[in-house]
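Most newcomers find our protein records easier to grasp once they have seen one. Sequence and backbone structure share a record, each on its own labelled line. To make this concrete, we reproduce a full record directly below:
***
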Amino acid sequence: MVSQMRARSEEAKEARRAEILGQTLELWAQARYEDLTLQAVAQRVGLTKAALYGYFPTKESLFLSLYETLLSDFLDELQRHLRLGGRHTPRSLAALVAALLAEHAPLTRLMPHLAGLLERNISETRAREHKHWLLGRLGPLSASLEAALPGLPAGGGVALLTYTQALVAGLYPMSDPAPAVGAALQDPVLSPLCVQLDVALPAALQALYRGLSASPDEQGT
């Protein structure tokens, strides 16, 4: 039976939000974004769809909050690795980031939807809140990246992380094509167009990190 009782205290509301996000994550592991509905989420947590709106007014706002949760976990783990000390080359840092992204598959799957979908149906207030949150999370990590990757300029860590997401957002959909496209790519003649994320992402990240950490003279050549 669906419960229409909404949490009343702030503590209870936060607990319910966490429950909704946890159940959404489980559903996300089983379905594509376009196939996952708010009705399915509401049923999973024992709420009516109308009651769910009291926590997340749109599907986009729900998944943006899920994205923030998943990204926080990824950034925390990356920070832990960087705090171990030592210097990285563009190649070793690319290998580390690619390996961590592979371990955080739900985040990697969600990244392509951020700019094209999740940020398209939220209020200006929520957008500002999200961007300030993001900058606050990336700032401290930026300093660790600048210490770990020689040649990365001051503030360059934020750009590195931003462009990393852009690469994932572009490469992941190409590595997971629609059924008709996947079938067409079985043609050996079309093999140069096939994208394997575990191969393409480390190579693309390495090239990106090498460019970001190059001296001005090297960048101009």
Summary: The chain is about 70% helix and 0% strand. The two ends are 67 Å apart (CA to CA). The chain has a mean pLDDT of 92. Residues 124-148 form the longest helix (25 residues).
